[in-house]
Amino acid sequence: MNTGRAHHLTWRHRSIGFLVFAMFAAAIVRLYQVQIVDHEKFVKEAAITRQGVVNIPAPRGAVLDATGYPLATSIDTWDVYIDRVQWGHQPTVAREAANKLATFFGLNPDELFRLGLESRGGDVLVQRQLDYARGITLRNADLYGIRLEPSQVRVYPEGDIAGQLLGYVGRDGKGLWGVEADFDHYLRGKEGLLSTERDALGRPIAFSARHERPAVGGGEVQLTIDRFIQAITERALEDAMKKYNARSGQIIVMDPHTGAVLAMASRPSIRLGAVNLDDPNLADLVRDRPITDLYEPGSVMKILTTAMAIDQGLVTPESTYLDTGSVEVSKYRILNWDFSANGTTTVRTYLQKSLNTGSVWLGQKLGPEKFYEYAKAFGLGDSTHVGLSGEAEGTYRTPSDPNWYAVDLATNSYGQGLATTPLAMLTAVSSMANKGVLMRPYVVSKIVTKDDVRSFEPVQVRQVVSPKTAETMMGLLHDVVDGTQFHGAQVKGYEVAGKTGTTLVSIPTGYDLDSTIASFAGFIPANDPKVSVLIKIDQPTGGLNLGGQVAAPVFATVADQIMKYYAVPPAIAPKNLVRTP
């Protein structure tokens, strides 16, 4: 019995010893975890407990126009909060603060006091983006339990122009669309931190240590957009939309020698000064249609088709074909837009009269291989790589597609059955004014940050047609406008080159025969173009629906004002000869 009891006590002592050892080992492991492995974590948590850490917003960089004037910039403001913990701790003092705060903002003091005491889950926001000077006045009043945090508000010195292109900044300080979103990482900067010791109620402790990490301001993004030209285009587009009761429209102005986009207007548009992020139509309003929307360019495409044939040496401006008013292609009958038959017709006259039979003739002379080779070289099946998100790529069928037919070549030659963006079309056409060299369009010219300056130079994509072909085409396009009596694109005192376009609106079942897209692409002055311009008015109504009736006059308005802005002296007034579609 004694031996058994001794053995039992020995086992029990060993068990207790093992348990004590295990507990001691666990404590050692925990101490190691706390003191070594998670040391930084608990130091930070302790610091947060005894310190108040405030994020200092970084000044967001400005978006500038081509002249260096701000289109979007930020100004300092304050966000005003009630510290409900402090108000709950001393409600009598809080009542006095509520009365003064209510007087300052013109609010009901009882409602404000109730809000500060009854709210749960943190501080109560009283006012967002309070004017900076008024905020200083409020801060100097030193109201109990009232905290002011630095904030910013985005302002637009030029109003609502270029709303889709510029974009918008959300409440979290991030860009939501446009340049504000695409270049957010440059514009946003890096926020700072301000740390002060606080007591259990969250109040700053007098004479305690302050630690500050200054905010680093965001960079500036300078655009190629000229605010004056942008304003000209937006006014003209707004007027055209009302005059022709159009569904939408776009105007692009470009330097054809560099690819710099000087203006890019679109309607409908967003009003930057009154953005409603809950608007169900917001996506439609902020869509940058000149780069996102595909359309069939219509007879503007005849510029490129004619350039292809001349570049291949297949025709000259005086080459002729017999226009009987229609042409049969794979059992399809293609007519001229005005149902005319013009007999023996030169290349020059075909362009002036915008005859579909002429472009079909040129397309057949080229053949599908060469036609689509040039179409690709002009960039019609690709995005322009302008540097903005959401840009669409052009589409068209080629002979390698089992659904391609010979009639596709015929219709593609005059701009139907293929689709491209307005920007891509203007870029392709602009090569005529640049000795046949296709330029890459761009809207950002410079990014300036704290550590770097990045400039964007013009980029030559490729030589599409020869300089001689381009020169010949500029002469032909000049004849199209200034060689045509009462052409709507004529500008008094200046020579103009360009081409109208009218196409039916594509729908899932084919084409809407009662709805058109009216367009015009042109250059001014014709002998030394300062700008190339594309006008596109979607679905005009009221009896006028052709490119020559609708888009050409808008070009004349825009071009005339740009020439005055650039102070380009007038030349001899153009002559008026024959009528155009």
Report on this model:
The chain is of the alpha+beta class. The chain has two domains: 171 residues, Penicillin-binding protein 2a (Domain 2), CATH 3.90.1310; 322 residues, Beta-lactamase (3-Layer(aba) Sandwich). It has 19 helices and 23 strands. It is elongated and about 100 Å long. The N and C termini lie far apart (124 Å).
Write the layout of secondary structure elements.
Elements: H1 2-37, H2 39-50, E1 51-56, E2 63-64, E3 70-82, H3 84-89, H4 91-105, H5 109-118, E4 124-131, H6 132-141, E5 146-155, H7 163-166, E6 168-169, E7 175-177, H8 178-182, H9 184-187, E8 192-197, E9 210-213, E10 220-223, H10 227-243, E11 248-254, E12 261-267, H11 282-286, H12 289-292, H13 301-311, E13 320-323, E14 326-329, E15 332-335, E16 343-346, H14 347-353, H15 356-377, H16 406-413, H17 422-430, E17 437-439, E18 444-448, E19 453-455, E20 460-463, H18 467-482, E21 497-507, E22 510-524, E23 531-538, H19 547-565
Parallel strand pairs: 2-10
Antiparallel strand pairs: 1-8, 2-3, 3-4, 3-5, 6-7, 8-9, 10-18, 11-12, 11-23, 13-16, 14-15, 17-20, 18-19, 21-22, 22-23
Helix pairs in contact: 4-5, 10-19, 13-15, 13-18, 14-18, 15-16
Topology, number of strands: 23
Structural class: alpha+beta
What is the residue-mean pLDDT, rounded to a whole number?
87
CATH topology of the largest domain: Beta-lactamase
Cα-atom Rg, whole angstroms? 35 Å
The number of helical runs is: 19
Give the DSSP E fraction (strand runs of 2 or more residues). 15-25%
Question: Helix fraction?
Answer: 25-40%
Tell me the number of structural domains: 2
CATH class descriptor name of the largest domain: Alpha Beta
